[in-house]
Every structure is written in C-alpha cells, then in structure tokens.
Amino acid sequence: MAHYELKLENQLCFPIYAASHLITRAYQPYLDKLGITYPQYLVLMILWEQGELTVNDIAKKLHLKTNTVTPLLKRMENQDWLVRKRDMVDQRRVIITLSSKAKSIEKQALCIPRALAEQFNESPLTLGDAIKLKEDLAKLISAMSS
Question: Are 105 and 34 in contact (CB under 8 A)?
C-alpha cells in the first residue's frame, strides 16, 4: 500500500527534477552547435559576465561543491574553453579565465535565451509565468541554501 507521503505526484522535488531535465534537453540543439555541454554553458555564462573567478566562486554560483566543479573545469581547459592559473598571492587559489575560443562564441550564444523564450510563446506557459516561476525558484534555492 502506497503512503501518501511517498507518492511521486505529491513530491515537490519531482516536478523540479523533470522540468530541469526537459529544459536542459531544450538547450541541447543550440549547445551542440557550439560544441559545449549544458554544464559548460553555465560556466561560460558566469565567466562571460564576470571575466575571471576562482574555482570556489564558480562552485558557489552553481550551488555545487568544488570537487564537483574542478573536473568540469579541467575538461574545459583541455578543450581550450578556459585557462586555469594559480593565484600569485595565494597558491591554493585557482583563477579561471576565458580562452580566446570561449570569447569567440559569446556572440553566437546570444541567440540561445531568445530561442528558448520563443518556445514559451508556443506553450500555455506565458513569459510572465516563466518569470514568476524563476523568482519562486530563486526563493526556494535561497531557502534551501541557508
């Protein structure tokens, strides 16, 4: 006998998980054209905005642990998307900057948010609904992070 608390339809986590999976899938055709994965896209967006950051700062922005982010950053360095260098003042800190290859695709990536926003026009979810959902999820992330 299924308990009410254990029914999938009663869980907050499942619709968030499913939506995340579907949104990531919607990004994939655009990211494939750039030759990057969704996690790489997130890192690039952070660096396009900030210029350079430490591994710790990137991990914090992604709500991940550094031991999760470090292998991703190493792979990105091997693929010439970014440059990793030790901080001259504190050798424990690793500074991440964009490579020229990563800088060169920033303009190509500009179409991605617009293309995904247009997909909302073809669904019952309005752009206003999406903005409200993003705000509500930001509240949830803040509550879960503290």
Answer: yes
